[in-house]
Amino acid sequence: MRKIIVPTDFSENAFQALKYSAELFKYERSEFYVLHAYADEVYSFEGVITSNLLEEYKQNIKEKSDRELAVILKQIKDLYANPKHTFHAISAFGLLIDEVNDLAEKENADLIITSTRGVTNDRQLTFGSNTLQIIKYVQCPVLSIPEDYEFSDPKRILFPTNYLLPYQRRELKLVGGIARSFCSEIHMLYASKFSEITLRQEDNKQAILEHLYDVNVQQHQEEELEKTEAIKKMIDDLNIDLLVLVNSRHSYLENILYSSTIDKIGLHPKIPFLVLQNFNRY
């Protein structure tokens, strides 16, 4: 049973992410937790308010959230009447990052699926602030869906890696499960100025391949001129449908996430972008 969290701010982009999640796991028994965190809406109230009125205002916001979630769940069930899927609506008075993290821990979630942009839809940014915070701080894999992206089977998956660190079994099983569902090719990209890999790298590489059994894995090696350019070139050349990167200490993705802005790096994925967090979860 897959457990997937889909945060929503009731934007069209967020609903696109929910539709993508229903399509991506259409072959698997899955539980979807559609979460709306509304603390920011309460605290955005301008003016003086008493504690009694605050409680009443909070209740009104919660009831509005519950109604909108009910509408979303009806829409998604009407679009995808899949007996393998169960949907849960959750209205939470809290900050989004905290509520997503708590729910991921409570339900031992496999994946969080979010849109790259939410209701503010700032086109100057590759990732909205909420999505970026979730990728940075929530200890669960995150799949981010670009604005206006229509689902297509992820037949070609790009998985750049330097083989320096072992990956967690559960997260590799997630990638392998997606690939098997759609008979996908996984293209492993090793971009480095060193053509030879160490014994440790070789061990890590073999561990990845063992977990991706029964998957068509293609291995590529590129001289490291610039990792972002190598990834973008591979996406274009191979018509990639899904990009997978890992967020761990000293990784390429960590350098992106903790730079002053992700957009300075120049990686603007036009395809779904899966971030593995590479930590032990049971």
Molecular structure report:
- With 282 residues, the chain is an alpha/beta fold.
- It has 9 helices and 10 strands.
- It has helices at 12-24, 39-43, 51-79, 96-107, 129-137, 169-181, 199-211, 227-238, 252-257; strands at residues 2-7, 30-37, 85-92, 111-115, 142-145, 156-160, 185-191, 216-222, 242-246, 273-276.
- A 10-stranded mixed beta sheet has the order 3-2-1-4-5-10-9-6-7-8, sandwiched between helices.
- Helix 4 packs across helix 5 (129-137).
- The protein is elongated, with a radius of gyration of 20 Å.
- Residues 118-127 and 258-266 have low confidence and may be disordered.
SSE layout and pairing:
Blueprint: E1 2-7, H1 12-24, E2 30-37, H2 39-43, H3 51-79, E3 85-92, H4 96-107, E4 111-115, H5 129-137, E5 142-145, E6 156-160, H6 169-181, E7 185-191, H7 199-211, E8 216-222, H8 227-238, E9 242-246, H9 252-257, E10 273-276
Parallel strand pairs: 1-2, 1-4, 2-3, 4-5, 6-7, 6-9, 7-8, 9-10
Antiparallel strand pairs: 5-10
Helix pairs in contact: 4-5
